């Protein structure tokens, strides 16, 4: 991952930004808190200071926040601090419309469940119209599919690629297909990518 930096900050602050994002990635809460306070520069508004931090120099990660990074690295303590103490929005989006929950899907460490338990919307689509259930089905992440469905995710959201069942079938993820069918996914649903 490229070093996260913000283009609208001076070069003098770039090392501090890198350290904040690295502490979030490492789940080093004491260091993260200390760096947030330094970034706040005594204004007494750490939430605003951390909300201003966004990755801008990496096309794949544009708009990533500290919460995106913490969720993607299963940094549960930093996620808790951001959500419970700083009251950061669990559904904030990057430039692609992706939420931290989308990146928590790669880990079994409880970050996804934590975000869902603290109000993350499992029905939020990204800018391309795909839902988290599509991504979990595409990758065959059965634990995430089970978690999303247990937390009330709709089993048949439609994107340009069809439903999660279509996506799982296209990837040959039979375990994912079984879970979706066990939760009443519509096996008769058609999409333009599946022969009629």
Automatic annotation (TrEMBL):
UniProt key word Nucleus: no
ANK repeat spans: 128-160, 160-192
Membrane-traversing stretches: none
This protein's record includes keyword Transcription: no
Swiss-Prot/TrEMBL keywords: ANK repeat
SUPFAM superfamilies, per the entry: Ankyrin repeat
PROSITE patterns membership: ANK_REP_REGION, ANK_REPEAT
Pfam families: Ank_2, Ank_4
Coiled-coil residue spans: none
PANTHER family recorded: ANKYRIN REPEAT FAMILY PROTEIN (PTHR46224), PTHR46224:SF18
Protein name: Uncharacterized protein
Organism of derivation: Triticum turgidum subsp. durum
Organism lineage string: Eukaryota, Viridiplantae, Streptophyta, Embryophyta, Tracheophyta
């Amino acid at each position: 991952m490229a070093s996260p930096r913000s283009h609208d900050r001076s070069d003098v602050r770039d090392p501090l930004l890198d350290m904040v994002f690295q502490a979030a990635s490492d789940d080093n809460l004491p260091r993260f808190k200390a760096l947030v306070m330094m970034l706040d520069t005594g204004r007494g508004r750490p939430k605003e200071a951390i909300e201003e931090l966004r990755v801008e120099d990496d096309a794949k990660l544009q708009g990533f926040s500290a919460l995106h990074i913490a969720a993607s690295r299963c940094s549960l303590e930093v996620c808790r601090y951001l959500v419970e103490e700083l009251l950061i929005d669990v559904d904030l989006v990057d430039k692609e419309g992706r939420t931290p929950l989308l990146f928590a899907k790669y880990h079994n460490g409880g970050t996804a469940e934590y975000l869902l338990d603290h109000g993350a919307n499992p029905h939020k689509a990204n800018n391309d119209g795909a839902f988290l259930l599509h991504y979990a089905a595409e990758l065959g992440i059965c634990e995430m599919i089970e978690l999303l469905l247990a937390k009330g995710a709709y089993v048949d959201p439609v994107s340009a690629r069809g439903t999660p069942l279509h996506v799982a079938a296209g990837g040959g993820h039979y375990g994912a297909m079984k879970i979706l069918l066990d939760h009443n996914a519509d096996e008769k649903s058609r999409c333009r990518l599946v022969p009629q």
